[in-house]
Specification:
The C terminus is likely disordered. With 310 residues, the protein is mainly α. It has ten helices and three strands, in the order H-E-E-H-H-H-H-H-H-H-H-E-H. Helix 3 runs antiparallel to helix 4. A three-stranded antiparallel β-sheet has the order 1-2-3, with no helix packed on it. Helices cover 63% and strands 4% of the residues. A hairpin with a 5-residue loop joins strand 1 and strand 2.
């Protein structure tokens, strides 16, 4: 009993520490996440400037994320860089506790070590499936529970485009979404966000399992390869993030979700097809070296986008 209580206290401490670290990291990175979100929905308030690609080809570039954050700060002040922060952190905390309470009921051997020589391939495979199922359920619960807060946070940040104050207060934003769209409005953009996260999880898990069990045996290299594979898989599924961001703010009463910023979409697949047509599915993926067509103008769609709207 004493050992069990000690293990429970240890797991609780680890969980709280991990959550606290995540909150601190989110707090520090929020201004950059805010700027990146505005890039994803296509808002470019600063003019492009002449530049060259890494191959020396003349092009026009957009200000990087540091200049973008600086622009937000100069416009709205330091606190303005934290639009959408409260619902974002609230969603993280609630969804993390929800996922923890659900996944702790799933059977996974915490003491299992797949690196041990006496462990058979069948045992490794069984443990892999159990772990993947737990991660799948945990990720799904996290996304579904946090989606209403993600919607509010996204629309709060999107107000920067048109200078609105519709989604300013936390409870006022909840009332606004419910009044205009009902319960369904709190889950706008859920499907592409969930698909992107789940595809990343499943794809990276299988690749890491195969590499770590059949190709790499050094523990240090395994950890490095795992991080690299997760990054690559996230890069491949990044378009789902852009689609979710755009569809979440689309036609919600804000200038950011209306023409000429973006057309009115019927569903998230329509959003995908439109962004694919204008070659903008990876918008905001590169925040340091950003290039754009020469016709790009501050705060507007480029010529190809405008032609699509006609």
């Amino acid at each position: 009993m004493a050992a069990s209580s000690f293990d429970l206290a240890d797991r609780t401490y680890t969980f709280i520490s991990a959550l606290g670290f995540r909150i601190c990291l989110s707090t520090i990175s929020h201004p950059f996440d805010y700027a990146k979100f505005l890039m994803q929905i296509g808002h470019e308030p600063m003019p492009s400037y002449p530049s060259r690609t890494v191959f020396g080809k003349p092009t026009r570039a957009l200000p990087n994320i540091f200049k973008y954050v600086g622009y937000i700060k100069n416009t709205d002040g330091f606190l303005g860089c934290y639009r959408g922060y409260v619902p974002k952190i609230t969603g993280q905390i609630i969804s993390t506790f929800a996922a923890e309470n659900v996944t702790k009921r799933l059977k996974v051997d915490a003491d299992f070590d797949p690196a041990e020589d006496e462990v058979s391939n069948e045992q490794r495979w069984i443990h892999f499936k159990q772990t993947l199922m737990k991660d799948f359920v945990g990720k799904s619960v996290t996304i579904v529970v946090s989606q209403p807060f993600y919607v509010i946070s996204s629309r709060s940040m999107a107000q920067f485009v048109g200078g609105e104050e519709i989604y300013s207060g936390f409870f006022g934003s909840i009332a606004e979404v419910y009044r205009t769209e009902g319960i369904r409005g709190f889950f706008t953009g859920l499907v592409p966000r969930w698909l992107g996260e789940i595809i990343t999880l499943v794809l990276s898990s299988f690749v890491i399992y195969g590499i770590n069990n059949y190709l790499i045996h050094d523990p240090e290299i395994k950890s490095l390869s795992s991080a690299s594979i997760q990054f690559i898989c996230h890069t491949l599924t990044y378009p789902f993030t852009v689609v979710s961001a755009c569809y979440t703010v689309n036609n919600c009463g804000l200038a950011a979700g209306q023409p000429p910023q973006m057309p009115i979409f019927d569903n998230w697949t329509h959003t995908w097809r439109y962004l694919q047509q204008i070659n903008q599915l990876n918008r905001g993926s590169n925040t340091l070296f950003r290039y754009c067509p020469p016709t790009r103008q501050p705060g507007s769609l480029d010529a190809k986008m405008l032609d699509t709207l006609k």
